[in-house]
From TrEMBL, chain A:
Tagged with keyword Nucleus: yes
GO process terms (BP): DNA strand elongation involved in mitotic DNA replication
Organism: Plectus sambesii
Subcellular locations according to the entry: Nucleus
SUPFAM superfamilies, per the entry: GINS helical bundle-like (SSF158573)
Lineage of the species this protein comes from: Eukaryota, Metazoa, Ecdysozoa, Nematoda, Chromadorea
An annotated GO cellular component: GINS complex
Protein name stated in the entry: DNA replication complex GINS protein PSF1
Key words of the record: DNA replication, Nucleus
Residue ranges crossing the lipid bilayer per the database entry: none
TrEMBL record, chain B:
GO cellular component terms, A-Z: GINS complex
Protein name: DNA replication complex GINS protein PSF3
Protein biosynthesis recorded as keyword: no
SUPFAM superfamilies: GINS helical bundle-like (SSF158573), PriA/YqbF domain (SSF160059)
Main location class: nucleus
Keyword Nucleus carried by entry: yes
Annotated GO biological process: mitotic DNA replication initiation
Pfam family, any one: PSF3_N
Keywords on record: DNA replication, Nucleus
Oligomeric form and interacting partners: Component of the GINS complex.
Family per similarity comment: Belongs to the GINS3/PSF3 family.
Function field: The GINS complex plays an essential role in the initiation of DNA replication.
PANTHER family: DNA REPLICATION COMPLEX GINS PROTEIN PSF3
């Protein structure tokens, strides 16, 4: 059945929401084979059409095969994309170390991607904050602060500061307010 | 990101019956695994208006090139008989049984200009409007209940979001910042200061 293999990839993802199922290398290979076969058949049909050996209704067959190729491609790309999204969320939820239970479910390219992503994130985080400090860990506080007020450390002397609700603060260098 | 959306891919894999004109090659059916065996002399002389059943994604692709390609026959759950059932009482209908992608697939069908398109569109909206208040009230008032299994996938997601929001809100009301804000705003200004 046309496009059936590729649909099985999607169904596998649908059956296991949120977790990363083992990479189905076999099914991916079969989808690629299907694409190659359909493409080859299309090239042959096109040659025959141009030579006038077959009638015009073959044009719809060409379109159908092409639609099947596009469909299989879409399913495969969606499969890879959703796995990548789940892996990305894993990094933010659990940190940059892959336990072997997860690693065994990923293909090599995904493991490589994960390391690259962690490296990018680490580089980005170390560039934040003041130069010379070790940067900000963005994954620690994933929710906005619940309190209305925040503690600040003053860097310059300012003497007295009055806020809009009437509270007065004394701002001196290196004091915590 | 509709291209990568799993729900869209699954919804468009459903099969649709339609009447195709003579440009529809029999071989497509062979590709689909539905090939009929007949001798090659009959191959060209296809009857016009024979019914074929093809997956929706294939129909969409073929009709994009040639919109006269086929006339769609609406599936049973979108026909006028069923539409009347939906109009009578949308809440009791088991969406899961008639197709878990009822709304999504209905929208997709409507985009291909089937017959009775306007009625189909109206029916989809009316059904949803009829059901949404029931889904939301179930979500917000039954804390420990299971999600009803008569919901379409779209309604399921709505239900889950509703339940989560309701839990967050009641948590906030009881434990969270609201209690503290109440205390602070009571003592923020003395009356004497305000009269300045």
């Amino acid at each position: 059945m046309l496009g059936e293999q590729a649909l099985n990839l999607i169904k596998e993802l649908e059956r296991n929401p949120d977790i990363i199922p083992p990479y189905n290398d076999d099914l991916m290979k079969r989808c690629i084979e299907e694409i190659k076969t359909l493409y080859q058949q299309n090239i042959n049909s096109l040659a025959e059409l141009n030579a006038g050996r077959v009638g015009a209704e073959h044009a719809s067959l060409l379109q159908a095969r092409h639609a099947a190729i596009e469909r299989t491609k879409r399913c495969m790309l969606a499969y890879i994309y959703h796995r990548q999204q789940r892996l990305k969320r894993y990094r933010w939820d659990y940190g940059g170390v892959l336990p072997s239970t997860i690693k065994v479910c990923l293909c090599e390219a995904e493991v490589r991607w994960f390391h690259e992503y962690c490296k990018n994130l680490a580089d980005f985080q170390s560039g934040l904050g003041e130069s010379g400090s070790c940067g900000v860990d963005l994954t620690v506080n994933m929710e906005p602060p619940k309190s209305l007020f925040v503690q600040v450390m003053c860097v310059k002397d300012y003497d007295e500061f009055e806020t809009s609700d009437g509270t007065r603060y004394l701002l001196k260098k290196n004091s915590l307010v | 990101m509709a291209y990568f959306d799993l729900d869209e891919i699954l919804a468009t894999s459903q099969k649709v019956t339609c009447k195709a004109d003579e440009n529809f090659s029999e071989e497509i059916l062979t590709l689909l695994g539905q090939g009929r065996t007949h001798d090659s002399s009959e191959h060209r002389r296809r009857q016009k208006e024979t019914k074929v059943e093809i997956p929706f994604w294939l129909l969409e692709a073929l009709m994009a090139k040639n919109s006269q390609f086929a006339t769609i026959e609406l599936p049973r759950s979108y026909k006028s008989a069923f539409r009347q059932v939906l109009e009578a009482d949308p809440v009791t209908v088991d969406m899961n049984r008639i197709g878990p992608y009822f709304y999504l697939f209905g929208c997709k069908l409507a985009s291909l200009s089937p017959p009775e398109r306007a009625q189909l569109a109206t029916s989809l909206v009316q059904t949803f409007m009829g059901r949404v208040s029931w889904v939301m009230s179930r979500a917000q008032h039954s804390k420990n209940d299971q999600r009803p299994n008569t919901l379409d996938k779209f309604e399921c997601r709505l239900y889950d979001v509703s339940v989560a929001s309701e839990a967050d809100f009641s948590n906030w009301m009881e434990n969270g910042r609201s209690a503290e804000v109440g205390r602070r705003s009571g003592s923020k200004r003395k009356f004497s200061q305000m009269t300045h």
